[in-house]
Amino acid sequence: MDTQTRNNLVQLSAAQMAEKFKAGEVSSRELVDAHLDVIESAEPQINAFLKVSADVAREQADAIDAKRAAGEELAPLAGVPIAIKDMIVTKGIETTAASKILEGWIPPYDATVITKLKQAGMPILGKTNLDEFAQGSSTEHSAYGNTNNPWDTERVPGGSGGGSAAAVGAFEAPLALGTDTGGSIRQPGAFTGTVGVKPTYGGVSRFGAIAMASSLDQIGPVTRTVLDSALLQETIGGHDPKDSTSIPSPAPAMVSAALEGQKRDLSGMKVGLIKELSGDGFDEGVSQRFTEAVEELKAMGAEVVEVSLPHLKYALGAYYVIMPSEVSSNLARYDGMRYGLRVMPPEGVPATAANMMAYTREAGFGDEVKRRIILGTYALSAGYYDAWYGSAQKVRTLIIADFNKAFEQVDVLVSPTAPSTAFKFGEKSADPLSMYLGDIATIPANLAGVPAISIPAGLSEDGMPVGFQFIAPQQHDEVLYKPAAALEAALEDKWNGPVWQWMTTPWLGE
User: Fold this and answer.
1) Which CATH number fits domain 3-264+444-508: 3.40.50.880, 3.90.1300.10, 2.60.40.10, 3.90.180.10?
2) Residues annotated as region Disordered (predicted)?
3) Which helix (DSSP H) or strand (DSSP E) does residue 405 occupy?
4) Pick the catalytic residue: 85, 116, 127, 428?
5) What is the pLDDT of residues 490-507, one digit of tens each?
6) Of 1, 13, 47, 248, which sits most exposed with the smallest number of CB within 10 A?
């Protein structure tokens, strides 16, 4: 197809692609080929993908095209291709978690979310880059190179799911899956002008998601519109008996909530501004876009009040004890014995199991992963467990109580998604604490297990996207989608279209 036709296709929303597919105006094979063409053009500049599964995607597209031709009933997103964060296992497609320790591993099974995507007739374009084992906020810690932000390739795309966000932001994929442990879907969403959702903990099966911190990890959508996120979350959500933490109830009605939100009537909705996530520490451009967005919510009829979550000031500290503790436990399995990399001791060093494990882990893990393993092992060690891990869990309980109390007063809570826009490569990599502080607004939702969404709120004075975050009560993900869709529509009017129109896209020839 010619360049203009390709560009017109890839810039559609996933919902629009699905409509055209069902109407017979475009085939799934054409959608896949259009995106593969953009991937070929964009990847030298973006590096969003670790593995492009072109043959698999085309085969899956041909199969769903045949089902449409046969008149079979089709799922809402049938025919629409998707990219997958390389933290989620895919049968027959290499899965590495962006680590040398899993290089070359071909999983013998699919994650539950992958099974659901295949059942829905959604071709898989490939596996996207990330910070190694999802440990980072910039995608600078991948063993296979940085992913660049499509808005400015000298800046980070966020992390850990920078590959998924960059792929969707650069039109290499209309949809992607990510995992969110402390903001790894939402913060990259804010940095790349995309929509990122962390569902309620247990609302989407984690079976087949490589574990980082099991009480915090959650698979969720990466898209360009709120409606697309609702469609994707309904596709992958619901109970899974293979996941012991899966909530035994169907996915909420998120699509209808998003469609209702597009009417821009928020009368009767009460919105809480989180006092602790504003002011000092947030860039002026971020705060300005946030304030303007809140005014849009008011203009649509929402009542806005300030709400205090007093224990949020301890959230970052609690998270950076709980998360590395669980990392230390989960990553103990990568020992050179069972699967993945194995490095034998050099000549002159006894060839014992302990030495083999030590050399394997030294060669296989990057610096950030090692840092978190060491922190977590210390926090779990005898004599320190109660003082560190036990205390952090008590703080987590207090934060959950704060959220519960806040949701007695308001329907949703709002904050900026991140304190700044995307920073330049190397700017924070030498200062881990500065990097960790970037997650201050996203971490609380993971600690409390509540759902949250980040949507683009416009551009800061540096020309980079700003994210706006909604947080809803546990198991009420649908509550996110109405105000998010309403604000998205209002801001598109304000910015004369979607935020991505302001991005320079040389890989599209524009």
Assistant:
1) 3.90.1300.10
2) 138-164
3) helix 391-406
4) 85
5) 999 999 999 999 999 999
6) 248
